[in-house]
Amino acid sequence: MNSFASWPALLVVDVEGNGTNPPDLVEIAALPVRAGQPDTTAARAWLIRPERPVTARAAGIHGLTNAVLADKPAWAELADQVHDFLGQDWICAHNAHVDYRELLRHLPKWEPTGVIDTLRLARATYKNLPSYTLDALIKHVTPDLSQAPRVGRHRATYDAYATAQLLLAMAAHYETWDQVVAAAVPPGLPGAPEPEQEPTLW
């Protein structure tokens, strides 16, 4: 059983884009995990009016249409708020290199202490599942989503809550934070354990 009290400050994050390549962000959610629980009272979420229109395909996935976003702030109006809220906390996301890459592209001066990937953690924790998508893991783990935001899947606030519950369920299989880090931080991302050096004669 993991000792959650020893965990550093951690935010589960999720971002949604407008469907272009590279994407403009249209929604960001950041959900603190404290004492082994998602802290919805301290969570933040931002809807963003993208510079380029939302594609029909993206709108069909997350439901954030150009009309919904028309009166929302542009990224330039929100960047400082998001940067300050994220701070240097650890972040966690599903398929985390995507969220990390887009946040870093939009916040070039931001750098988290570390990046936990629940996709990587799931592959280490649950061997030989046929799929490791968020939906597949929700079906396999059956986390308690009764308190999840009512907006539904593919919205950042819901996906961040579901990811937080999956993280906590999987972390219970490990005894320490360092074991979670070893299983869940992709190589090359912040917080990745340093590879052991081969001993030398000098």
TrEMBL record:
Q: Which UniProt keywords apply?
A: Exonuclease, Hydrolase, Nuclease
**Pfam families in the cross-refs:** RNase_T (PF00929)
Q: Which CDD domains match?
A: DEDDh
Q: Which GO terms describe its molecular function?
A: exonuclease activity
UniProt-listed SUPFAM superfamilies: Ribonuclease H-like
Superkingdom per UniProt? Bacteria
Extract the Gene3D superfamilies matched here.
Answer: Ribonuclease H-like superfamily/Ribonuclease H (3.30.420.10)
UniProt feature coiled coil, ranges: none
Q: Which InterPro entries match?
A: Ribonucl_H, RNaseH-like_sf, RNaseH_sf
Q: Does the keyword Hydrolase apply?
A: yes
The record places domain Exonuclease at 9-176
Any idea what this protein is called? Answer: Exonuclease domain-containing protein
The source organism is Streptomyces galilaeus
